[in-house]
Write a structure and sequence with these properties.
This is Glycosyltransferase involved in cell wall bisynthesis. GO terms for molecular function: glycosyltransferase activity. Keywords: Transferase. It comes from Maridesulfovibrio ferrireducens. By secondary structure, this protein is an alpha/beta fold. It folds into two domains: 224 residues, Glycogen Phosphorylase B (Rossmann fold), CATH 3.40.50; 182 residues, 3-Layer(aba) Sandwich (Rossmann fold), CATH 3.40.50.2000. It contains 18 helices and 13 strands.
């Protein structure tokens, strides 16, 4: 039970709510049930015009930061003119404000980065506009890039401690020394896979622990009594953002191989993204338009219905040119829990959940022929399905129950003085 007068944990997010980040909203919802009082600080307003139903269960207050440099200047100083704003007599006599502004300019002189300058101003917005009267005593950020930069800056300006959770792209697309610096100043750091944990431990300052906490899924939402056996025409399914790290071309080329082998199937893909046009064009180029259906982005309830009719889930994750990669995509766990066998790749933390030949089949990223072979085997080998599907469900229940992991996370918070209401 949350006490109205208890200290508040600020949670800095890139955007809220986001349809693709149910793991974060689930974490907030479960922490609240555990008795943690949270104030969400979002760097961006939602892009989608709908949300998952679970969002309605979250009680946290939500504050939105100005998302542009001009917006920060306008909100803080009433002008987009740097000098005019900083000389505003309303703040000239405020010694603490002046000291914070000095720190912001010092940071800008050191980095010369407009993005860094914006993150400092967003941090000042938090200190000036959000912290007063809020009872916030600790700042936690999700993702180790810009949200953690803002949290780190807000910590410098306010004196409050900060921590962060690192996920995937945010780890591998920035220089290791930048993450090392953030870890060194943070009170603690969390990450969502053993793969990530090992990497972060290697670059963390000595004595700074990294806590592994899987996202997990709400197993109560993913239940199925469907038959394990199947027959043609097969239903194949993918949920993914249209971005290079998801390896969708590998999946499509594998589907083309299945079609060339005379295997009768229909394919649905849920998702969207910056690479939408090239992704959909590849489907047409491969001559798969009559077999493939893009259904756009869908809320959780509609995705569940697609799981219930699917015979196979396929995902071709790979390491993108810029280093971006997945951790453990929750959709794999959801599929396994819904009695839908999975074919995926050996990238990152995926083998921690999908054991090759036991709870799914893994292939090397980019190897579409091996993926086609794996798809065909899972679809046609009914004896394998009878063994693999229940083993996959057991694996998810054993290691990916979010109610278990949220208690682990709450225990981590408590180690550092972030306690739930008694």
């Amino acid at each position: 039970m949350i006490n109205e007068n208890q200290p508040v944990l600020a949670m800095i997010l890139k955007g809220y709510p986001r349809i693709s980040e149910t793991f974060i909203s689930n974490e907030i919802r479960l922490l609240e049930k555990r008795g943690v009082k949270i104030h969400i600080i979002s760097m961006r307003k939602p892009r989608e015009d709908f949300t998952h139903k679970s969002i309605s269960e979250i009680k946290a207050k939500v504050s939105y930061l100005p998302s542009t440099l001009e917006g920060c200047l306008e909100e803080l100083f009433g002008s987009t003119n740097h000098d005019a704003g900083l000389k505003d007599p309303r703040y000239g006599s405020d010694q603490e404000f002046t000291q914070r502004i000095d720190k912001i300019w010092e940071n800008f002189r050191e980095t010369g980065s407009e993005a860094s300058f914006k993150h400092m101003l967003q941090a000042e917005y938090i200190v000036e506009k959000i912290l007063p009267g809020s009872d916030i005593f600790h700042i936690h950020a999700h993702f180790a890039h810009s949200p953690t930069s803002v949290a780190r800056n807000a910590s410098k300006l306010s004196g409050l401690p900060f921590s962060f959770t690192a996920h995937a792209k945010d780890i591998y697309t920035q220089a290791p020394e930048k993450i090392t610096a953030k870890i060194s100043e943070a009170k603690f750091a969390v990450t969502c896979t053993g793969y990530n944990c090992k990497y972060l431990e290697e670059i963390a300052p000595e004595g700074k622990p990294i806590h592994k906490v899987y996202h997990g899924i709400d197993l109560r939402l993913f239940t199925s009594d469907k038959e394990y056996s199947t027959s043609a025409p097969y239903e194949i399914f993918t949920v993914a953002r249209f971005t290079p790290k998801k390896g969708l071309p590998t999946v499509f080329k594998a589907l083309k191989t299945l079609a060339d082998r005379g295997i009768d199937f229909a394919y649905k893909i849920v998702g969207d993204g910056d690479d939408r046009d090239s992704t959909l064009a590849l489907i047409e180029e491969l001559g798969l338009s009559d077999r493939c259906t893009w259904v756009g982005t869908k809320p959780h309830e509609e995705v569940l219905e697609l799981y219930r009719t699917a015979d196979l889930f396929a995902l071709g994750c790979e390491i993108a040119e810029n280093g971006d990669r997945d951790g453990i995509p929750n959709v794999l766990a959801e599929s396994m829990a819904m009695s839908v066998p999975v074919v995926a790749t050996t990238v990152s933390g995926i083998p921690e959940l999908v054991e090759n030949g036991k709870t799914g089949i893994l292939v090397e990223p980019g190897d579409y022929l091996a993926m086609a072979d794996a798809m065909e085997k899972i679809l046609t080998d009914q004896d394998l399905r009878q063994v693999m599907i229940p083993a996959a469900k057991k694996k998810v229940h054993d290691i990916f129950d979010n109610r278990y992991w949220i208690n682990i996370l709450a225990d981590v918070y408590e180690l550092y003085g972030i306690k739930a209401s008694d």
